[in-house]
Structure formats: structure tokens, C-alpha cells
Amino acid sequence: ELNPFNDGADHINIYSKARTKLGQRLSNFDHSPFEHTKYGHFESVEGFWYWLATEKKHEILRNLYGIDAKKKGQEIVDEFGERALFDAQDIEDILESIRCKLRQNKDILKMLVDSDLPFEHYYCWYAKDNSSYKIEILSEYYWVVDEIERIRKVCKEKYSK
What we know:
Blueprint: E1 12-13, H1 21-26, E2 34-36, E3 40-42, H2 45-53, H3 66-80, H4 88-104, H5 106-114, E4 119-120, E5 122-126, E6 133-137, H6 142-159
Parallel strand pairs: 1-4
Antiparallel strand pairs: 2-3, 5-6
Helix pairs in contact: 2-3, 2-4, 5-6
């Protein structure tokens, strides 16, 4: 079973509140501006995610990151009911946004290549006294984790030659 107290010791949680800097920086919430190869500038993958989910209509999402991107994206979804289910092309566009983020934010890419621990993706809530925790594993988004693992493997092979 995953233990969030071992984040950084036996795994890296890809989460904005992770215990590792790499886990935080790999999160979609991270403020890591990039130019998407098809769609232009975004301040975060989270902003891109919601821009895509709201039918590419809400330009404000390009400029948001962190909880602001999520809140505004969810607000738009709730107001306009525009939440589109992601099809195969949408998923490829999201994966490309992650690749662009990593290519264009070399500090994150370096941390990724220098890491060896397996990646996980879960939300975590701690008791006030840190004596216990509750986690929610987000297995439906493991295609994101798989892509980050793939990128790390490819880059390690490239840079080890």
C-alpha cells in the first residue's frame, strides 16, 4: 500500500502537495509556461487541460495555473456545461502539452532525468497531528504517469550515451 510519508523514499507522487520538489513540478498545477506545438502559449498543463475540456473557447484558461486554473475551469464547466469527454486526439494533445512543458522547462526535465523512483499519482490528506492520512489514488489518469515514465526512460537513454 502507498504510504505518503514515503513520498521521496520509495516513490514520487505527482501532486501539487507532494513531499518532493519533482513531484510538485510534474503536477499539472505547476506554473511552468510552455508553447504547445498546435495551440500556442499556456501557463500550465492544468490551464491547457481545462481549455481543452471547455471546447477551446475560454482564453482566460491559457493564463492560469494551480488551484486558480482548476477553479476557473470547473466554474466554466458548471456554468456552460461544456465538459467534453476526452477522445483519443484530446489525450494526445494533453500528452503533447506535458512533453512541451518538459522540453521547455529544462530544470524540471533535469530533475526528471536525475530521478529513479517510480511515479505515483494520488491526493493525500493528513490528520492535523500528522498521525494518520487518507489517500485517493487517481488510477484513471495513469496514462499521464505512464507518459512521464516513458519520457524519463527515453531521456535517460539519450543522455547516458
